[in-house]
Amino acid sequence: MNVSLVSLWLPIVVSAVVVFIASSAVWNLLKYHDSDWQKLPDEEAARAALKSATPGQYNVPNAESPADRNSPEWQDKYKHGQAAILNVVTHGSLSKGKQLTQWMIYCLAISVMVAYVASVTLPAGADYLRVFRVAGTVAVLAYAGAAPMHGIWFGQKWSATAKDILDGVIYGFLTAGVFGWLWP
User: Fold this and answer.
1) In Å, what is the CA distance from 43 to each residue of 38, 62, 162?
2) d(Cα 144, Cα 124) in Å, to the nearest integer?
3) C-alpha angle 169/173/176, rounded to 5°?
4) How confident is the model at residue 95 (pLDDT cuts 50, 70, 90)?
5) How far apart, in whole angstroms, are the C-alpha atoms of residue 26 and residue 75?
6) pLDDT reported for residue 96
7) Averaged over 40-54, what is the pLDDT?
8) Average model confidence (pLDDT) for the chain?
């Protein structure tokens, strides 16, 4: 007999909280992500140039249409100058309340998806390892699956991408462990 999604509320909530806490440890205690970013050669000039930019995603050189991207001028800029993909974020407050809330909601959403897949594939009383394998596969794919896109399309250093994948595997295994432990 399959398990109802509603009956999995406890592993959903506990796994999301465990991942939230683990991610805090990864980012605040382990510090292996500190080397993911570099300082610009002339940071103050870059800050001055970005002063009027509103929060959003930018690229340099920018082409507003495929025709612009095919122009000799744009192609020359791209070939002979620096290219960048840049995210400008809201400034002012050092508070991370909004991001932490969004991260918790994301963790809950992943746990709900893990619970859904597990509930339609595993019976009540399934053994720990079987639950761990199903839940872990879904959770690792959810937390780590998109990380390579940043290296492929956006120029993220592969060392940073590898660390993002490692984080996703850790979070996925923690999620799997909680589901295996609390499986009805």
Assistant:
1) 10, 21, 27
2) 28
3) 140
4) confident
5) 41
6) 86
7) 91
8) 93
Run of H or E residues at 58 = strand 56-60
Residue 172, both tokens: 């996925």
Helix (H) or strand (E) holding 86: strand 84-88
Residues recorded for the chain: 184
Q: What is the arithmetic mean of pLDDT over 1-18? A: 95
Residue type, 61: P
Beta bridge partners of 58: 86
Residue type, 132: F
| CA separation for the pair 73, 14 (Å, rounded) | 55
Nearest to 27 by CA among 163, 159, 142: 163
- What is the token pair recorded at 38? 């570099």
Residue 60 three-state SS: strand
First to last CA, the chain: 11
56 DSSP β-pair partners: 88
